[in-house]
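Below is our example:

___
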Amino acid sequence: MLKWKDDYLLGIDKIDEQHKELFRVAERAYNLLKSNYFVDKYNKIVEIIGKLKDYTIFHFQEEEKYMLSIKYKRFFAHKIEHDEFIEQLNKVELKDVDENQDKYILGLLEFVVKWINDHIIGQDLKIIED
């Protein structure tokens, strides 16, 4: 599981706190995957997916406002990555979630964790380099 580390810090408090929240949402999904307390995890999975969608949309809007405020020259390429991530989340088929819940959580986690890591390290840190 991907853990927050200071390598992800941009030095922009609002964005750093939002990134940490994305890690917390991923951690909730991981804890659900490892939990033996729930036989049927469907409702919890749907709740986590909803939180991830809502919070990610909020975060991307905030990050994009910041990039525009500093006239970030790679804004449009960055926004395309944001839009593609949201598009992937919107493709979630809830019937697929119910068929094999743990497998679905694991796949979602792998996708989200890889994306968060690659995006923060590969793209977001460029915001502060320019």
Observations:
- The first helix runs from residue 13 to 34.
- The chain has one domain: 6-129.
